[in-house]
Recover the amino acids of this structure.
């Protein structure tokens, strides 16, 4: 029973201390006074001698000239050694027989189950519900869209063309 008496004494002491603290704090809590009405604006004649505060951002304007090199004599201020601001002229594309033949696509494997087939074309995994995907070929990359996949074949369109290309496993084309 000694333990209970000690706890009740501590509880009473805590309650008395809390009440004393509340009585000490409450008189200091007063409502904040209302702010005074703003002063009327001064006439323009009095403002000539006064210092006018300005916004520095409107006073100084940074300009980065991003025009091509003939008109722009400067450099990139953040990376002066860079040539990225100078456009590279594109080489004219030749229409040789190499660009007219279809890209070399190879169907490596078909995995999955009927209705959920996946085709591995040039080491890229593609499904019929995928959007056109970039696939690497020896001359660069082409956009390939898989139209149909079977157990050992895949029908694809290249670069949004309407012509389907039929790929079978083991065939290089």
């Amino acid at each position: 029973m000694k333990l209970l008496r000690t706890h009740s004494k501590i509880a009473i002491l805590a309650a008395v201390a809390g009440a004393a603290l509340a009585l000490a704090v409450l008189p200091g809590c007063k409502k904040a006074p209302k702010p005074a009405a703003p002063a009327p604006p001064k006439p323009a004649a009095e403002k000539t001698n006064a210092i006018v505060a300005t916004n520095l951002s409107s006073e100084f304007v940074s300009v980065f000239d991003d025009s091509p090199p003939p008109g722009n004599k400067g450099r990139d201020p953040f990376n002066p050694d860079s040539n990225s601001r100078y456009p590279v002229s594109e080489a004219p594309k030749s229409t040789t027989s190499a660009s007219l033949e279809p890209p070399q696509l190879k169907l490596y494997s078909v995995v999955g189950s009927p209705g959920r087939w996946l085709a591995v074309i040039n080491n890229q995994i593609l499904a019929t519900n995928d959007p056109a995907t970039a696939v690497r070929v020896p001359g660069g990359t082409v956009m390939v869209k898989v139209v149909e996949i079977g157990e050992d074949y895949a029908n694809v369109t290249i670069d949004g063309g309407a012509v389907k290309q039929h790929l079978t496993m083991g065939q290089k084309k």
